[in-house]
Amino acid sequence: MFHGSMVALVTPMQADGSLDWEALDRLVEFHVEKGTDAIVAVGTTGESATLDEQQHCEVIRQVVDQVAGRVPVIAGTGANSTTEAIALTRCAMKAGVDACLLVTPYYNKPGQEGLYLHHKAVAEAVAVPQILYNVPGRTACDMLPETVERLSHIPNIIGIKEATGDIGRAKDILARCGERMELYSGDDATAVDCILAGANGGISVTANVAPAEVHQAYAAALAGNAAAAREVDQGLSALHEALFLEANPIPVKWALYEMGMIETGIRLPLTPLADEYRLPLRNAMLGVGIEMK
Predict the structure, then answer these.
(1) pTM for the full model?
(2) Cβ(105)–Cβ(132) under 8 Å?
(3) Which residues are catalytic?
(4) For the segment 7-45, what is each residue's pLDDT rounded down to a tens digit?
(5) Residue 35's closest CA among 222, 215, 218?
(6) Nearest residue to 282 (alpha-carbon basis) of 264, 244, 255
(7) Which domains can be identified in the chain, with CATH numbers?
(8) Could you give the CA distance from residue 254 to residue 261 in angstroms, rounded to a whole number?
């Protein structure tokens, strides 16, 4: 259903942490103009953990309304409470999203059967297309390929964002259930190699600040042009690294501030980018030709 460069969109905020609706609209227009293939609202990069349920739904509705059908919208609706995940997913479906992205339940550390039953419950409760999201480095919970294979038989579970950065893991998932579900990379540094191995695209942090370049790299990889894809991606490698000098989305929000796209707002317990990382990030941005204020 989805392909190419899918931006894991930040949620812009004022310095006091209040939501900045004008900046959100501006970011959506920026991505439509630059060729981003789909917009993912209120995922990890969108600070879903510190938005309350009402704000979460409001951001999703605003993105859907501003996009106005020009590109697909995917909403992050995962939670470590199955009941909350169902409620957020229902809200997103009502808002008119094309799909929902559901991270594995974090902190409570369910086993594989618990993961299966959690995602099965959400899929059966809400008819919207759903994408699994495995990022054990942040959740302390790893959905194994065997569990992904079980879930791939549920009709409205249509894909997985695999963010381990392990190409072998991606190939295993594709071999098990590639005919039934799509696979998207969730790791910028390895996304091009993942697409060349058979993934349908990537959900990218880097695309927030270099959308045209990420789109170009992923499009070349999808076309099977490995040399062109790797050439563009190599030019982005320093930026990929710099955007994770601190926990995401700290660096990417600071980068967008430097570009004049958003204000400095970020919600505790996250804080603005530390001084020692600002020059390395600026240098990485300059290396890609990103204009800053």
Answers:
(1) 0.97
(2) no
(3) 133, 161
(4) 999 999 999 999 999 999 999 999 999 999 999 999 999
(5) 215
(6) 255
(7) 4-223 (3.20.20.70)
(8) 10
